[in-house]
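Long-time lurker, first post.

We've been arguing in lab meeting about whether zinc ion would sit comfortably in this protein at all. Half the group thinks yes, half thinks no, and nobody has a model to point at. So I'm putting the question to the forum: if I give you the sequence and the SMILES, can you give me back a predicted structure of the complex? Inputs are below. Any interpretation is welcome too.
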Amino acid sequence: MVAAHDGKVLLCGDTVRGVSLAVSYFTEHFVSGEGIAMPEKLEVICAYDRAANTGAPLREEELAEEERAGALYLDGRKLEGFSPDTDRYTVELEYGVPCPEVTAGAYSPRASVTVENVTGTTDGVARISVTAASGAVRTYEVAFRHLDHYTVSAKMEKARGGAGGIISLVHDDGDLATVRWLQERFTAYSEEYGVDLSVMIALIANRVYRQDPAQPYVFDPDCVIQEQADAWRELLESPYFSLGCHSYTHGNWGQTDSDGLMTREIVSAGQMLRDIFGLPVLTFVYPGFAEVPGEERYNELSMSYIARNYLAARFLTSGKVNPIGAGTDFVRVLAHGAYSGQAGLDAQLARIDEAVNGGWGVLFFHTVIPEQTAVQNITVDYAYMEQLFLYLIPYLQDGRLWCAPFEEAAKYVWEYEHSHVQAVGYADRIEVSLLLNEDAAFPEGSALDTAVLDCSVTVRVALPDGMTEPVCGGTALSCFSEEGVRYVYVDVAVGQTVTITQGV
Ligand SMILES: [Zn+2]
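Top reply:
Settle the argument with this. Predicted structure of the protein with zinc ion, as tokens:
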């Protein structure tokens, strides 16, 4: 029995430093011919770790079978479930993991121990022999069995491609001249800077569809405003634009308690856009309306309609970015609106700077005109928008930000916050899956199904040493190193498994 000088009884596996023990103890146990050496530290591996170790001396019956082991250790850690009376153990190891070194302590201080270890990454059996003073020997065996797989370290990144954050640009209401100008600018930027900007058009549905509001909505081709719909369809075919719903009329309906009005403004408006353009239209954009001092613009009813019918909704000007992974309020996605004048521009540029650190910045703007004269107006001019875009472009060029359509960003962030990665390595491959968490669900009564979550999330995967030229789906992956570990990025959608193999 060993006690520290504060009287605490030490158990198997304990380590003490600055040891001072009674010389009689050393005389009994530690003298090895060269005299007594005072160890700097003492590892207690001899005493049998009894559950209720009282510090009392070993009893007679405990000393009866001296050839028993007192404890087994695998690379210095106690073997779970060890009992002196059990001789055979099986330990499962992951594929590729070397068999640990076995050490053992005898139950009795008078017994001696020898260990025959196994090494390497294949199965094997370590043998531990305990010899009592009487010469009686007892042999214990620890069989190491390897699994066919191993756990791979992998984690989701907050933005596609490992970018630091996300920027989503939103054009409110739907002004054809503005979006045509954007298309011209974005085409030029793509050629000049090699990056693609992207804007979601939050369209007021009655700009493309008019139907008797007294009737429940059923798609009627005669109600489509064909010329407008064709113009928007053509723009939406461009890679730069995507579509969201900005209500039916943009009228002051946020405080109503009329289910009929909510249905038309929120539910039917989205369906009109889907029916006309054949796009999913999974996101909503709150009309700002005119502010009523002291009153919220939206009541519980209108917000519950939005929550049940859309994956996400861009809220009003907030001055903030959404921290990805912090439990985003998808019915109130924070956003920052454009206002003419330097202060308005500076505020939007500040959101870009903030998004780099794990944020989802949403910037919205209305009509863009050639030249602005009035300040503090929601209309901005070409120069304003060009400064915004040219400020953003370097962030996209070096991969610090991902410019994502609002709908795709909403899916990405939703998946990031509601799923987990499973990465398993085998002899010849690594399989990476993205799985929805068990408690992941849309709000009660949601019209959406989790099947809409088809957005790939970027996962950082740590590579084993042997995988020097990783390939995924026939494409070579580029590796990068951090703190001595090599990684690759793979994009994985919810429910999907991608396989990384070693290229030839
Ligand atoms: Zn609007």
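For your lab meeting: Residues 172-173, 246, 250, 287-288 surround zinc ion (CB under 6 Å). The chain has two domains: 45-147, 156-414. Whichever side wins, do check it experimentally.
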